[in-house]
Every structure is written in C-alpha cells, then in structure tokens.
Specification:
Rossmann fold; seven-stranded mixed beta sheet; alpha/beta; 16 strands
Length: 476
C-alpha cells in the first residue's frame, strides 16, 4: 500500500462556511470524537488516490480536518496491477446492475483478488495496533477485512456504490464479496436501500458523502480566474485574463496553473461567445455520456442556437484503467458520427491526471464558467459533481436516480429529469438558458442546500458516530 500525504486543515476554514448552530454541533461532535479515539489510530484505505476517484475525493478533506484536530489518521491506497483493477471494475459495475466488460468473477479472479490484497496487507499489519480502527472503501478493499480484524482492529467497510437494479450482475458481485464482509464490524452506505441484503440492519449505518468547500475543486475562483484556467487548459478558446492562477496542493505545497499540453478529446477548444452545458465525470457508461450526446443532438431545435455541449472527464491510463479508456473511445466514436452541424457544437475533453489538484482546479473552472451543469447519469449512488456544481451556485439539470434525488429538490435548487426522457432534459436546459434570473436564483438555493446538508461538518460528526457504533459491535 502507498501512504497518501495530506496536510492538516484548520477547522476555522470549515467553520467559516457554517452558521452558529452547525458550528456548535460540530464542536460538540469533535470533543466526543477526541475522547472516543484517544490512543487509537484511524486507518482509511481507498482503492486509489487518483483524480476523479470519488472515494479519494471524499476521504481527503475528512483526513485533513481530523489531522488538524490532532486525531491520528492515516490514508493508504492500494498497490494493484491492471488485472486486479479489471476485476474491481466488474464488481463496481455489477453492484450497479451492469455487466461491465462481461468478464468472469470466478475462482481465477478470486485468487487474483486475494493474492493482491494479501500482498497489500503485509505492508501494513506490522504498523497497526490492537484497538485501532480501519475504514475500507469499496469492493477492491473488502478482502483486507479478515487480516486486519485478526490484527485486533475494528473494521468498517464503506460502500460508496449503490442504486442499480437487482439482477444477475448485482447478485454475482455481492456473491463474490459476501465472504469478505463477514469479517466487517460495520458497513456504511449512502442510502438505506443500498444496504446489502445479507448485512443485518443493526450492522449498517447511512452516511451521505460531502464536498470540501475549500478544496482545489471547490474553492472560490472569480470569473477571471476561472476563465484563465479554462483557457490555459485548452478547453475554451480565447485569451486568458491571467497567465497563471495560483493554488495550494492538499499537502500544503503552493503551485500555479499555467499553459497545459494539448488535451485528448474532440471538438476543442469551445469557441468564444457561446453558452455551454457542461457535464463532468469519469468515463463510465453509467455516467451516460453517449446518451447525453444523443439527447443534445436530437433536441437541437429545443435549445438556443448558441448552446454548446461540453463533456469533461479525467484522462484514463489505458494500462491501468482499460474500461475507462475503452469507454472514452466509444464516446469519441459517437462524436465522429455526428453531422458537422452538430459536432461543431459538441466538445469532449480528457483532462490529464498527472496532478490531482491541477485536474481538480480545471474541473472547478469548467463548472464555474458553464451556463448550465448537467449530470445525465443512468445510475448514481451519490452525485459528487452535482453537489460540487451546486456549491458553485450553478443551475443543475440532473437525472432523477439514486442519491441525486436526495441532493436536489426539483424546481427549487435544481431540476430532476428521467434519464430516459431526452426531450424533457432539453426543455429544462433551454428554460434555464433563456431565463437567467431563474437560473441565478436556483444556483443560490443550490449553494445553500449544500451548505446545510453536504459539507464535511455533518460528514465528520456522522463518521465519528459510525466509528462509535463499530467499536460497540466489535466489543460484543
């Protein structure tokens, strides 16, 4: 496993976004957590720390704030070969009710899974102590539970997935994971309906994810800064107002966005003087990028003539993430088939991931300069890009699926649409483009919704409560 360095975050930064009641609740929860965790180390293990990884983006601020409070927290990421990543992708797809690449989850894949995790466990079992707590994130880490429990740790498995239909794909994914979850003291899911059927209700708690308002992906950028980043990145045409935009890495190092290498993608840059409908997300078929292109292409007459579609995702490593690379290829193939009158209004950008914070800052800028942000996911356990766009006061049109339905009150702080109804999606987007005052009011309401429900103060308190519950179950 690899240790991921995170700089401590001062709680004052988070409290600056809270009202008096929320701040009081947070401080009360912190004191309880300090008592609970005194003398313990909390280990958190994610499959990856790469840009675009939802678990990593959720974990980073929680670790930073905990360190800032003097709590001993360590973040580790798996070391895993491409074959393991391929198996993990099948599990991920299966839990969402999708067959993924159609590959097997048999004994050969189980042997590989267990061998890789055994090797990773060897790197950490000498450092952990009896009484410590470990939070394992998503299917790739579940197989670590047994060895860590034998070492005397309280084991929590945090599943960020869910929302897909039941069926053969889901059943085979859960059948693969079942034996590993027997050694887990507590399971955390994002919605009650995401609880695995074989996990008893008393051994499961619900904790929704959160977004860090001060991370590179969400920190305030004024419009000149945002346009500078979007143009320096090569996504938008035009002269950037600034030659460089400074930012700070999560480990505390200062840096700046400057002119970047040419991006992979199609139809770049977005021309000046147009309005954009932007979607941000991984290259995963469940994010609905191809369906979004189709919805845009078949409903051009419902949209203003200067409306352009921009789809942005992390540049996949074909040697590490074959599924993402293959799907990006499918999206680009779909773009190639568009008539020129449509393709000139559709833009696809794969942003490099050599630096997670650079990638995040580019995404931040794209969501801030977009006129409407959309998320046309087919399945979504929780829409991090949705919450991030809402925090930036962007008007959002998103699929009424999974956790997105908990994030948006339809017509108040965003618009929910059936992912199968392309014409309704186009009309909702057109209304926001044609009624800028309504779009602004919706964006302000969205920002307030995220401030109340989806910032790390609530997430920290609920995670501490989950650890308390896990320690009780471990002791029984």
């Amino acid at each position: 496993m690899r240790t991921i360095d995170v700089a401590p975050l001062p709680l004052s930064e988070l409290e600056s976004h809270l009202d008096e009641v929320a701040s009081h609740r947070l401080n009360g929860g912190i004191e309880a957590a300090r008592v609970l965790l005194e003398g313990r180390t909390v280990w958190t293990v994610t499959p990856s720390a790469a840009a675009g990884s939802g678990p990593a983006e959720t974990v980073a601020p929680l670790v930073g704030y905990a360190l800032g409070l003097g709590i001993d927290v360590r973040w580790l990421a798996l070391d895993a070969p491409a074959d393991f990543v391929r198996v993990a992708a099948r599990l991920h797809a299966g839990i969402h009710g999708d067959r993924g690449d159609g590959g097997k989850l048999g004994e050969k894949q189980r042997d590989l899974y267990e061998h890789v995790l055994a090797s990773n466990a060897e790197n950490v079992t000498e450092d952990v102590r009896e009484g410590d707590v470990v939070i394992l994130h998503d299917p790739p880490t579940a197989g670590l539970a047994r060895s860590l429990k034998r070492a005397g740790l309280t084991v929590i498995w945090r599943c960020h997935l869910g929302g897909g239909p039941s069926g053969v794909a889901a059943e085979r994914a859960w059948a693969f994971l079942d034996r590993y979850l027997e050694d887990v003291d507590l399971v955390i899911v994002s919605r009650e309906e995401y609880r695995p059927a074989f996990i008893e209700p008393e051994r499961c708690v619900v904790v929704a994810p959160s977004v860090n308002p001060d991370s590179p992906k969400n920190r305030v950028l004024d419009l000149d800064e945002a346009w500078s980043v979007a143009r320096l990145a090569g996504i938008y045409d035009g002269e950037p107002p600034f030659e460089a935009v400074p930012f700070v890495h999560e480990d505390g190092r200062p840096d700046a966005i400057r002119s970047m290498p040419s991006l992979a993608g199609a139809g770049l840059p977005v021309p000046t003087g147009v309005r954009t409908i932007a979607q941000v997300g991984r290259w995963d078929r469940l994010k609905g990028a191809e369906e979004l292109i189709e919805a845009f292409a078949t409903n051009l007459t419902a949209l203003p003539g200067d409306a352009h579609l921009l789809i942005v995702g992390p540049e996949p490593d074909p040697n590490r993430d074959e599924a993402a690379a293959a799907y990006l290829g499918e999206v680009l193939d779909r773009w190639d088939l568009l008539p020129e009158s449509v393709s000139r209004r559709v833009h696809i950008a794969a942003v490099p991931t050599y630096d997670r914070e650079v990638n995040a800052t580019v995404v931040n800028a794209v969501q801030r300069v977009a006129d409407v942000v959309t998320q046309r996911s087919l399945v979504e356990a929780f829409g991090l890009p949705v919450a991030e766009a809402m925090w930036k006061k962007a008007p959002v049109v998103a699929s009424a699926v999974g956790g997105i339905q908990d994030q948006i009150v339809n017509g108040i702080d965003g618009v929910l649409v059936d992912p199968a109804d392309a014409s309704t999606w186009a009309q909702a987007v057109a209304d926001l483009l044609r009624l800028p005052q309504r779009a602004r009011e919706m964006g302000l309401a969205a920002h307030e919704s995220v401030r109340r429900e989806f910032l790390p103060d609530r997430h920290l308190r609920e995670t501490a409560g989950a650890i308390d519950r896990a320690l009780e179950l471990h002791a029984d």
